[in-house]
């Protein structure tokens, strides 16, 4: 039998497996957003996805693994967008670069608002994704700051990157609820960027001779 025939048989199986996995994640995200994570069992997910619980367990060992993959997916989107931002951030003012950092996270989190609310409510967002992804996101911010500030003796770049990332990400997390609280999301982003950008610009000023 020609080798390519065996590959052709495997590809549909691989495609179906990918589709099934994606289906489980999509249904889980919808149910978590609507019912909360604690109120959603793997049996409910399997039923809503139109498959047996045995099929679901071939892809995920338990609900926690599904939660982790969904959380990781959000952070991977942010990481990808931050990496692309790094290539153009050098041409932006510190204030505009910070605004873009916050806006990127806001766009992704708001687009997944029901899921993010469920993750935050169950503290899964803090316990699952941030410890793994924060160092990677912080490194991207750090590279931008190094490019902007150059060699400096008076600033701890690691601490600065930590503050910029966490202040921006805190704003992004809260943005999911801002409109319900009567706040203008764009205005909050702009003011936060003003404050952080002014701080970075001050630090970036040349030291007096």
Automatic annotation (TrEMBL):
<feature type="DNA-binding region" description="H-T-H motif">
    <location>
        <begin position="41"/>
        <end position="60"/>
    </location>
</feature>
<dbReference type="InterPro" id="IPR001647">
    <property type="entry name" value="HTH_TetR"/>
</dbReference>
<dbReference type="InterPro" id="IPR050109">
    <property type="entry name" value="HTH-type_TetR-like_transc_reg"/>
</dbReference>
<dbReference type="GO" id="GO:0000976">
    <property type="term" value="F:transcription cis-regulatory region binding"/>
</dbReference>
<keyword id="KW-0238">DNA-binding</keyword>
<dbReference type="GO" id="GO:0003700">
    <property type="term" value="F:DNA-binding transcription factor activity"/>
</dbReference>
<dbReference type="InterPro" id="IPR009057">
    <property type="entry name" value="Homeodomain-like_sf"/>
</dbReference>
<feature type="domain" description="HTH tetR-type">
    <location>
        <begin position="18"/>
        <end position="78"/>
    </location>
</feature>
<protein>
    <submittedName>
        <fullName>TetR family transcriptional regulator</fullName>
    </submittedName>
</protein>
<dbReference type="Pfam" id="PF00440">
    <property type="entry name" value="TetR_N"/>
</dbReference>
